[in-house]
Structures are given as C-alpha cells and as structure tokens.
Amino acid sequence: MRQQMNKTLPAKLKRFTRRLQDEKFEGDVTNFYSAKRTNMKRSNLEKYFSYIYQQGTDTLLVGEAPGYNGCRLTGVPFTSEYIIHFGVGKEKLFGIENGYTASNKRVKKEQSASSMWDVLQKLDELPLLWNAFPFHPYQKGEVNSNRKPNAKELEIGRSYLSDLIDIFKVKDVIAIGNVADDILNKMRIDHIKVRHPSYGGKTLFKKQLLSYYKTKKKCTKT
Fold first, then answer.
1. How far apart are alpha carbons 63 and 91 in whole angstroms?
2. Which residue range forms the structural domain that includes residue 171?
C-alpha cells in the first residue's frame, strides 16, 4: 500500500476539505483544519483521501470524534503522530518520506490508533476512516481532553458523513462504538456495529472487525 504522491486530489474532495477549513464554532470545539494558508493537518488529510480514493474502497469505518492525542494532532482519523511520522505496513502508508507531517519532534502513540492499524495492516484492502463529528470536542476549559459530541455537533457531522459516502461510493458501513451507531441509525444508513477499541475493548474490536472482513471476503468469492 505505497502512498501515491503524484496524483491530484479530485475537485470534490478539495471542496470537502475546504468546507472543513471554513467551519466555525463557538464553545468547546477545536477546528484544527482552520488555518487558511499552511495547515499540515489538512494537508495530511488530503494526502490520505487521495490515496484511499485512488486505491478504491467500498467500506467506511465511522468513529466518534477526534481525540486530543490523535486526529487533533494529525488531521487523519485513527492516526497518531507516531503513525504519521513513521508510516504503517511494509509499503509505508503515511510517513514523512511520503510528505506527511507530524507536529512534534517527540512523536506520540495513541491507543485507539494503534489498535486500529494493528487490524488494518492485516487486510488486503484498506477502508476509509472517518468520525461522526470530524472536529475535536473537549471538556470546558480543558483543551487537552475529550468529550462526546453533543446533538448539535453530530448534526453538523451528518452532512460531512453523507458527502463522504457519496464521494467514495461507499456500500458497507461499520460503526465503531455507540455514538457512531446512534447517528447512523438516525440517518437510516445500513451498517454493522463493532466495539470501540478504547476502555478495554481492544481485543473484542479486533475480533469483530477481522471477522467482518473474513465474512466479506467469503461473500465476494461466492
């Protein structure tokens, strides 16, 4: 899964990331895509989108929201600075040699990201990763914290989620945890639910996700 760096991001995905950039919030939400000139997090996301779009996938994994030690620092769902800096897999998706940028020299790992990529590296085809709310919600006055997105925030997230399903022509959707499951139910999008890897769910998450892909592979062959 070598990163292709010589491809142009499709116009519809450029418009998508521009919308992310322009989203405004009042209150305890960080829009880490908002810098208008040089924004390494938006650049990382565009490189990731370009790779997945070129590769092709019909599967979308939906999490809850960016965490302060993960996507808020990298711009890409379910990644850490460690993954962005060093890459994953034999062919090195991500990685500074592929033009990705980590914000700190002392790069950090993040539990959910590590659990996710432990599974994804075992797959023949990578899914698209996204969140029910694509911005970072935090506890009042505590930027370096996480909280569940509220109903108003999830309503904003629905539009982005719908657009990505359309752009990537997604057929199969997997909810990672309860928040993603709830919003997909409200949107009446057929999906399955797997355990979120955080708070002791790592083993069950891996088992359920690998089982899904094993079943999907069998169905494709028949």
1. 25
2. 12-221
